[in-house]
Recover the amino acids of this structure.
């Protein structure tokens, strides 16, 4: 009797409902990503930070952020200056907003550059192999052997001040921003290049590549349309983490005074003047420092989530 | 009918760390227009490698085409620039592969993979290519092709994927279709369907075909001529009927004896060939089949026989007449 009651409890499904359409790769990825709580946290924090830096720009002007007021130097948080003022009396809240924009800009563009160079070098080495592979990989290994920080500092010192300021969208970007983007972009690619090369080496052995060649597909099309999309997962993960890495590196060189030059603010160079006031004026470093930690953490969580979600070997649905 | 492809003395080698692999050792054959040639032999005897060599799909190094010509419509494929070969591959000579599971790119939609070929070779715009792709898919028996265009390979079954491969190969109406064991990875009922489909396609398009297989059962209903390969050599070539009625090479003879037949008693034991295929790392000396051959004579160990005529369009590479057991 109870068995019959159980049978009735099972809802009758229409044929359409039983046979749900197969999930696409995107849907599967999203399902797995959604499960990753820290990754969702990362995404939320990231969205809030983007809203903070780009939305905040509608509330305060850049001119205000760069405006010095020596009579108000080093004042603590107050109703007028909620995050306090810095050593020359600039409003720290406004500067974290504009500095955040520059930090994000540097992170994204340096990552794009890094990814492009990494893919180009890794793909050529992995696909063509032979002497080209040997030359490119020895070069990559040579790059990896030089400590990146050292390279960054030397290059920042060398190129600093050599690139003129660039007016764009009615604002002026310090030439040092471009210099930092190029320097970070052109020193960060070796890891990605090695990942891409490894992916290409394994994917090009697949029968579908032979099949593509047998239908007369030209090499460039095989590289970009057949192999690259198959190796997109590790590239996306690596690129995501590359953004966090670029932001940290920028903060590092700017902190040492070799990065982006004031009055253009970044979260990194806001810390520069703060180390003399670690105890006497903590608001100088607490706010930009917290923002750097938050954004790097958020991006790393996002990267971890993507790594798990995009892993083709993961069978979790 | 004219000769489409004339392959002469093709030798392919692979230079590996263990030594040189003598994969294909000077094979010659012709394919006439509209004709179906079967290449038969056990795994590793050089069937696929010879075809891949002709299309320039061998990776060099470690591969090496040591000698030979492959004249297709007056041009030697083996000496052609890569860029010119790309125009022949897929358009003039198409190829389908053994494992349909791995022969389609998993991240590209089915439609995209076929339209791509049409863009490359036929210069079609997107709309024309899509229209033609739907036609092709329906032609090879994919129902509701229009709505399945955006599907990915993992959403197709094995048999359907092989149908897609065939559609892709036939997209540009090639004059030669090379089928590299296209039914091996499929179960028997699907095998029959695919063979039937290919036969129908051949009739409608009039293309020549090279069917690579180790399944002599499939060959009988499909091919007009058969080349039997062993250790990188062609050991017997004949019309399909001649080969089944009157096999003259000991290897072919053993292969046919190993085949289950409907006209034999159920308890009849299938004969297997003793020994194992030769090590291709050793440069061949003497007849490669001699160690496994029940007719082997002293001469077989020293001298490798060349193909010689034993009947109409029937040649074998053997010193022995298996009917009498004496040297020929």
């Amino acid at each position: 009797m109870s068995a019959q009651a159980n049978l009735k409890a099972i809802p009758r499904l229409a044929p359409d409902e039983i046979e749900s359409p197969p999930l696409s790769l995107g849907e599967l990825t999203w399902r797995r990503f959604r499960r990753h709580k820290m990754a969702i946290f990362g995404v939320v924090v990231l969205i809030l930070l983007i809203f903070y830096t780009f939305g905040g720009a509608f509330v305060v002007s850049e001119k205000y952020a760069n405006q010095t007021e020596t009579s108000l130097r080093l004042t603590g948080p107050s109703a007028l200056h909620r995050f306090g003022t810095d050593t020359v009396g600039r409003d720290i809240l406004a500067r974290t907003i504009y500095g955040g924009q520059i930090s994000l800009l540097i992170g994204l563009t340096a990552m794009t550059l890094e990814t492009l160079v990494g893919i180009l070098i890794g793909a050529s080495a992995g696909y063509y192999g032979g002497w080209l592979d040997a030359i490119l990989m020895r070069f990559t290994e040579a790059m990896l052997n030089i400590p990146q920080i050292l390279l960054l500092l030397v290059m920042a010192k060398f190129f600093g001040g050599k690139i003129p300021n660039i007016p764009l969208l009615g604002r002026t970007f310090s030439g040092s921003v471009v210099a930092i983007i190029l320097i970070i972009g052109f020193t960060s690619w070796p890891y990605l290049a090695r990942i891409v090369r490894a992916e290409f080496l394994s994917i090009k052995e697949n029968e579908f590549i032979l099949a593509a060649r047998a239908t007369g597909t030209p090499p460039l099309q095989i590289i970009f349309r057949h192999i690259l999309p198959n190796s997109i997962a590790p590239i996306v993960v690596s690129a995501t983490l590359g953004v966090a890495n670029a932001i940290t590196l920028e903060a590092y060189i700017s902190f040492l005074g070799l990065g982006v030059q004031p009055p253009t603010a970044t979260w990194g160079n806001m810390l520069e003047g703060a180390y003399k006031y670690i105890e006497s004026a903590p608001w100088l470093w607490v706010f930009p420092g917290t923002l750097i930690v938050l954004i790097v953490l958020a991006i790393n969580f996002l990267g971890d989530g993507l790594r798990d979600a995009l892993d083709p070997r993961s069978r979790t649905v | 009918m004219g000769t489409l492809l004339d392959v002469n003395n093709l030798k392919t080698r692979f230079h590996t760390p263990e030594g040189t692999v003598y994969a294909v050792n000077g094979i010659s054959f012709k394919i006439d227009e509209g004709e179906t040639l079967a290449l038969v032999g056990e795994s590793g005897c050089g069937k696929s490698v010879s075809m891949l060599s002709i299309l320039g799909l061998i990776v060099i190094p470690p591969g090496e085409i040591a000698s030979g010509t492959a004249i297709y419509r007056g041009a030697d494929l083996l000496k052609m620039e890569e860029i010119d070969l790309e125009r022949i591959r897929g358009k003039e000579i198409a190829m389908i592969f053994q494992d349909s599971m791995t022969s389609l790119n998993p991240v590209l939609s089915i439609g995209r993979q076929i339209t791509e070929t049409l863009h490359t070779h036929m210069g079609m715009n997107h709309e024309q290519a899509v229209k033609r792709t739907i036609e092709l898919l329906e032609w090879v028996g994919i129902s509701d092709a229009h709505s399945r265009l955006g599907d990915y390979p993992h959403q197709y079954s094995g048999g359907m994927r092989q149908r897609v491969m065939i559609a892709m190969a036939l997209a540009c109406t090639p004059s030669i279709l090379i089928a590299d064991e296209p039914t091996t990875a499929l179960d028997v009922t699907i095998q029959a369907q695919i063979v039937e489909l290919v036969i129908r396609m051949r009739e409608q398009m009039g293309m020549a075909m090279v069917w690579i297989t180790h399944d002599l059962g499939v060959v009988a209903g499909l091919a007009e001529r058969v080349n039997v390969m062993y250790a990188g050599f062609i050991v017997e070539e004949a019309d399909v009927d001649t080969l089944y009625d009157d096999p003259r090479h000991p290897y072919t003879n053993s292969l046919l004896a190993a085949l289950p037949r409907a006209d034999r008693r159920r308890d009849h034991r299938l004969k297997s060939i003793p020994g194992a295929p030769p090590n291709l790392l050793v440069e061949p000396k003497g007849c490669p089949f001699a160690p496994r051959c029940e007719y082997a004579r002293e001469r077989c160990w020293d001298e490798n026989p060349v193909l010689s005529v034993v009947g109409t369009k029937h040649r074998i590479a053997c010193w022995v007449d298996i009917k009498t057991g004496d040297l020929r």
